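pinging the channel bc i need a second pair of eyes. not urgent but kinda urgent?? the chain im working w is below, pasted from the shared doc
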Amino acid sequence: MRSFAQCLDLVDDPRLIEAYDDLHRRVWPEVVQALRSIGVERMRIFRRGTRLFMYMETTDGFDPARDYQAYADQPRCREWDEQMRRFQRQVPGAPPDSWWAPMALVFDLEGTD
């Protein structure tokens, strides 16, 4: 199993943030199914103000640069992705070719004695 952390910002508008949260309380089943089909075993998104933090655990062969957007090959999932982008903004310093910015692992409790 592999794990990844990524961040993204939301547009600083309380109404849009509430709509974003509401949509994620009832994610479309096609999106859930497609994420699982590409190897995402667990995904959690946390929010603090406008900052989003996503943590996901995947199958061993998963490569986010190659595999993550594959779920959007399905029309309903592409629609979800396009809808989400109206709420979102890249974080400062994000790679131009990556919507969600990867985060570096700084500490892992499991790696200590």
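so Residues 2-92 form a domain with the Alpha-Beta Plaits fold (CATH 3.30.70.1090). and The two ends are 21 Å apart (CA to CA). — does that match what u expected or am i reading it wrong
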